Amino acid sequence: MNLNLKIWRQKNSNDKGGMHSYQISDVSPDMSFLEMLDVLNQQLNDKGEEPIAFDHDCREGICGMCSLQINGEPHGPDRGVTTCQLHMRKFNDGDTIYIEPFRAKAFPVIKDLVVDRSAFDRIQHAGGFVSVNTSGNTQDANAIPIPKADADKAFDAATCIGCGACVASCKNASAMLYVSAKVSQFALLPQGKVEAKDRVLNMVKAMDEEGFGNCTNTGACEVECPKGISLENIARMNREYLSASLKK
Amino acid sequence: MALSAFFLMLFLLQHFAINMMSVVSPEMFNETSHFMGTNPMIQYLMQPILIFAVVFHFVMGFILEARNKAARNVKYAKYNGAANASWFSRNMLVSGLVVLAFLGLHFYDFWLPEVTTKFVEGDMTGLNAAGEFRYFEELQHKFVDGWRVAIYCVAFVLLAMHLMHGFNSAFQSTGIDGKMAAGRKKFGTAFAIIVPLGFVFIALFHFLTQTGH
């Protein structure tokens, strides 16, 4: 496959940046998208040019490190996969592919396609945890009966890998799906209920302070989420938030 | 936004029910319109609440849009919004602005003359020169002009688009979910189609019956 690539290049966070065109030939349909970028970077290296910076780590779809807005969609045109699991057979010979960083005011570009997603970490620090007494007499979690349906929903919410595709896909750059998944994974379990009120209030406050947009329920986040996190979590978080605000 | 949306949807439903009376029974329409236009509870309590809800809904919509635009300070070179969300959900401001423009015309057509008659001229009788209720006659008079009818129809199609997303979005925003969600979504789609297209039917009915079709 021969492809025309339009890639965002930006030297650093202060640089204005812009789209640059690259040609790449003999791309195997069995390559992953990141492997295709590896080949392009090798070619740039060989020519003495600066390689393109992009995020990646496990390349197995579980770490949430890879990002990329590909042809206007986070993680590209395939569903339920991260960029590292996207294969070049999803594209056609001669295609022009736009590759950009995830765009949000709360996700500033560090370099080229690498963005700073530490806003998610700060939201998590605001309440995305269960305080545990580690004195040595902690109750065995398995001794607490939990309905299977609740356990399943909590587990589904906990599969969020925090990649930021929800923010990137949302026309408002809203982080509601991410935050609601982190709220839900605890809100559904007895261990999480003790701190539920403070958790949702603090995490939503932190989300707003980071400058993410507001949710208008378009559902784009759910469609683009590589882990299939459901919009039900946003409704649950809204319920938790309303309830906590009234009891405040 | 969601709370004002619930109130406005309820108002829309009762407005639709009253307007449908003009098709079924002009007498019933006249009597109901007179009751709505002269009942102190509706005039001095519900009407100000309605005006507040309309203004609040639009102002909050503009504020929300401005905040959301600011949350993405650099736009994508290519953004494929159609791949993951409906046109209705992505363009609530567009459909909302059309409905707002229509409301201006609607107030000019009905609300301003009504307020002038009742509160400037002090005529609370609801009667015309012949001593009969004037409401049905006034309604028909507005649907003689084909252009006005066309504008009404276009505005209600846009309102249908607005409701296609707005109905269920209001429930999602207030956290109302659970076992009834699937049925509610179907009801929301039916509401978004039937009520606005019902208004279109009423406008066309009066236009066609008066122009001899």
TrEMBL record, chain A:
SUPFAM superfamilies (alphabetical): 2Fe-2S ferredoxin-like (SSF54292), alpha-helical ferredoxin (SSF46548)
Pfam families: Fer2_3, Fer4_8
Biological-process GO terms, alphabetical: respiratory electron transport chain; tricarboxylic acid cycle
InterPro entries to which the protein is assigned, alphabetical: 2Fe-2S_ferredoxin-like_sf, 2Fe2S_fd_BS, 4Fe4S_Fe-S-bd, Beta-grasp_dom_sf, Helical_ferredxn, SDH/FRD_Iron-Sulfur, Succ_DH/fum_Rdtase_Fe-S, Succ_DH/fum_Rdtase_N
Keyword annotations of the record: 2Fe-2S, 4Fe-4S, Iron, Iron-sulfur, Metal-binding, Oxidoreductase
4Fe-4S ferredoxin-type domain sequence ranges: 151-181
GO molecular function: 2 iron, 2 sulfur cluster binding; 4 iron, 4 sulfur cluster binding; electron transfer activity; metal ion binding; oxidoreductase activity
Needed cofactors: [3Fe-4S] cluster; [2Fe-2S] cluster; [4Fe-4S] cluster
The family this protein is said to belong to: Belongs to the succinate dehydrogenase/fumarate reductase iron-sulfur protein family.
NCBIfam families named among the record's database cross-references: dhsB, PRK07570.1
Protein name: Succinate dehydrogenase / fumarate reductase iron-sulfur subunit
Organism: Lishizhenia tianjinensis
From TrEMBL, chain B:
A single Gene Ontology CC term: membrane
Cross-referenced InterPro entries: Cytochrome_b-558, SQR/QFR_C/D
Superkingdom to which the source organism belongs: Bacteria
Transmembrane segment boundaries: 41-66, 87-108, 149-167, 187-208
Keywords attached to this entry: Membrane, Transmembrane, Transmembrane helix
NCBIfam families reported in the protein's UniProt record: sdhC_b558_fam (TIGR02046)
Annotated protein name in UniProt: Succinate dehydrogenase / fumarate reductase cytochrome b subunit
Organism of origin: Lishizhenia tianjinensis
Upper taxonomic lineage: Bacteria, Pseudomonadati, Bacteroidota, Flavobacteriia, Flavobacteriales
